[in-house]
Amino acid sequence: MIEEIFDLVLKTVDLPLYGEVKVKDVLFAIVVVVIASVIAKFIVMSLRRSLADKMRKDQLELLVKAVYAVVIIFAFVSVTPALGINLTGLLVAGGIIGVAIGFASQRVISNFLSGLFLIAERPIRIGDQIVVDNISGIVEDMSIMSTIVRTYDGLYVRIPNERVFTSNITNPVANVARRFEYAIQISYRDDANKAIEIIRNVVERHPFALKIPPPQVFVDSLGDSGVNIIARIWAPSSVWYEVKMSLLWEIKVELEKNGIEIPFPQRVVWFGKEA
């Protein structure tokens, strides 16, 4: 389109030649590069606005510079035929080198692209508790190449973004509430209905045990040593572990106060009569 406009404007003008290149071709190349520069700046501004709160400043600057350079290089390569520059040999050599570098750095490129997808999708954020490929902990940092996780044991773990993006990500705090459950066994001699009522009362008194969804306490099965009662309780995700730890002890203490026995494993042995 731009070349057609130049032809219309300059068709009556006999421009001089510099070698085999007309001034028209030089002007066309300059205009294309200028327009590409404007487009590149617009793309850079859009990236800065959309990714300002999703990437660190140094990483964002590196990304926008790379995008700007790619646009300008593409524009320059597109106008080289008009300037009489033959890039065939250079492109062939560059292609061979590019293939070699591509094979050598395919994991690096994969991590880079995975980092961009993670930034766009945002399945995890800094401060989230996550489980990725059997690694569980708190997200300390997210870069364009890797994700840093501090495990619950205090270990520093760097996970390549390709591994994060292609693995199943479990985020325990993504939802507001989280459920946990206990398996509590009582003796066959004790009243199961009374035990269920005691457990319910303990749960309802706890300030962080949620009323909605309501807790569930019920007889699940009849075991070898006693009656198995299941208690399912919902708590805010931010404190669910503390609630789980404290409630179990409170239930045990309250059951013992009311004479409900938590039995030891038992076996009945029968001796056959001697022949």
UniProtKB/TrEMBL annotation:
Which GO molecular function annotations are given, in alphabetical order?
Answer: mechanosensitive monoatomic ion channel activity
* Segments forming domain Mechanosensitive ion channel MscS: 108-172
Compartments where located: Cell membrane
List, alphabetically, the GO terms of the cellular component aspect: plasma membrane
Instruction: Give the record's membrane topology.
Output: Multi-pass membrane protein
Give the stretches traversing the membrane: 26-47, 59-77, 83-104
Q: Which PROSITE patterns match?
A: UPF0003
Instruction: Tell me the keywords, alphabetical order.
Output: Cell membrane, Membrane, Transmembrane, Transmembrane helix
Instruction: Return the SUPFAM superfamilies for the record.
Output: Mechanosensitive channel protein MscS (YggB), C-terminal domain, Mechanosensitive channel protein MscS (YggB), transmembrane region, Sm-like ribonucleoproteins
UniProt cross-references to Gene3D superfamilies, sorted A to Z: 1.10.287.1260, 2.30.30.60, 3.30.70.100
Keyword Membrane tagged: yes
> Which ranges carry the Mechanosensitive ion channel MscS C-terminal domain?
181-262
Using the record's annotation, list all stretches that form the Mechanosensitive ion channel transmembrane helices 2/3 domain. Answer: 66-106
Tell me yes or no: is Transmembrane among this UniProt entry's keywords.
Answer: yes
Similarity section: Belongs to the MscS (TC 1.A.23) family.
Full protein name: Mechanosensitive ion channel family protein
Q: Which organism is it from?
A: Archaeoglobus fulgidus
